[in-house]
Amino acid sequence: MPSASSQADGLWRLAWTCSAVVEDSLLWRLEQLGIHHTATVREPDREEVVTVLAWLDRQSWSEQQVRELAAPFAPLGAVFQAPPPRFSLAEQTREEWSSSWKRHWRPDPVGNALLVLPAWLDCPPEQRHRQVLRLDPGRAFGTGEHPSTRLCMEALERHQGVVKDALVVDLGCGSGILGITALTLGAARVVASDVDTMAISTSRENGALNGHGPERLQVVHGSSKELVPWVGSGADVLLCNILAPVIMQLAPDFAQLLKPTGGQGWLSGLLTSQADAVRERLAGLGWRTELAATQQDWALLAFTPWEPTPKPDLCRPAAISSTYQP
Ligand SMILES: C[S@@+](CC[C@H](N)C(=O)[O-])C[C@H]1O[C@@H](n2cnc3c(N)ncnc32)[C@H](O)[C@@H]1O
Fold first, then answer.
1. What residue numbers bound the domain in which 93 lies?
2. I need a labelling partner for 254 at 20 to 30 A (CA). Which of 28, 107, 229, 287 fits?
3. Are residues 143 and 232 part of one domain?
4. Is residue 142 within 6 Å of ligand 1 at its C-beta?
5. Straight-line distance from the first to the last Cα atom of the chain, in angstroms, rounded to the nearest whole number
6. Is residue 109 one of the residues assigned to a domain?
7. What's the CA-to-centroid distance between 324 and ligand 1, angstroms?
8. Closest Cα to residue 30, out of 6, 43, 12?
9. Digitized pLDDT (tens) for each residue of the chain, 326 residues in all
10. Total structural domains in the chain?
């Protein structure tokens, strides 16, 4: 029986054992409920069955509330003509959580040239050609597993020329994974923020694990407004992987964060079904947007400032082509 103090400090471990076809839908619903501490356990010899795990703070959730939250997941199987997910609930200490979760995490190749490597593992020889990001996400979001994180990481890799020597804003940094990816790809400096204090210490620790000290990775507690004093006349790149309603709320501050000419922003954390609404919101604020990529149900939006179209110079004659014959 756990002591009163360890109980107050402990977690609920929610587990759904289900058909693999139900996994995405289950994880999506958890994400929609704002539950980010999740993992999927696969057994190598039973690919058709997975166990989706989620953790909730026992200080904030009573057992009855957790069971009420889990009840609507039961019919999910029927949607996919699969058996209902088998739900179980257990108590866990933070230490148990940390070690059980770590057991399930493996080196994870992302894009063509990146590897997210759990801080406690060695780089597998077959992945040595990749650029390694050492990470211990602790209790913050961002292991690189989630499509919204991968979409951003892959965009950074595809646009390494934009990232090189850039000042990068990482809004909603979680484990710090996006900022650290940018630094690994050659960014000069990253300024990051998160409303979750756990994310602040975790991002700093992960920065240090990758050799990026406070002179290159500055992490502040807060949101978009708290980043403004750190970006001078504007960052070259802005990354924001937060849910769509929050992105839309923060969008008016983007103009103070991204430089007015040549800045490049990427937004993920939104579902493909939400992309049009987010694009409309940004267009209304004067940004040019593009649906840059999708993964499962998640979308990546690229946004840039509208560049004013140069007015024709009335004093100078139009350029004469070299084939012009008087
Ligand atoms: C989906 S996670 C993304 C973490 C990481 N950047 C990644 O890509 O994996 C979203 C993060 O945004 C933070 N967050 C939520 N609302 C925020 C806000 N208004 N301002 C700043 N951060 C916020 C959360 O605490 C969480 O760490």
1. 11-104
2. 28
3. yes
4. yes
5. 97
6. no
7. 58
8. 12
9. 333 444 456 889 999 999 988 988 898 888 778 776 777 787 767 778 889 988 888 887 889 999 999 999 989 888 888 999 999 999 988 777 767 667 767 788 999 999 999 888 889 999 999 999 999 866 566 677 788 999 999 999 999 999 999 999 999 999 999 999 999 999 999 999 999 888 999 999 999 999 999 999 999 999 999 999 999 999 999 999 998 999 999 999 999 999 999 999 999 999 999 999 999 999 999 999 999 999 988 999 999 998 765 555 544 444 433 333 33
10. 2
User: Is the beta carbon of 187 within 6 A of some atom in ligand 1?
Assistant: no
- On whether 276 is known to bind a ligand per the annotation, the reply is no
Residues shown for the chain: 326
193 CA → ligand 1 middle, Å: 8
DSSP assignment, residue 258?
A: B
Ligand 1 pocket, residue 246 CB under 6 Å: yes
**How many alpha carbons fall within 13 Å on the CB side of residue 237?**
30
Instruction: Verify that 152 and 96 share a domain, yes or no.
Output: no
Other beta carbons less than 10 A from residue 142's beta carbon: 28
Annotated binding-site residue? 17: no
Same domain, 146 and 257: yes
**C-beta 180 within 6 A of ligand 1:** no
Q: Which tokens belong to 260?
A: 């007015």
For residues 40 and 155, state if they share a domain.
no
Amino acid identity at 176: G
Find out whether the beta carbon of 49 lies less than 6 Å from any atom of ligand 1.
Answer: no
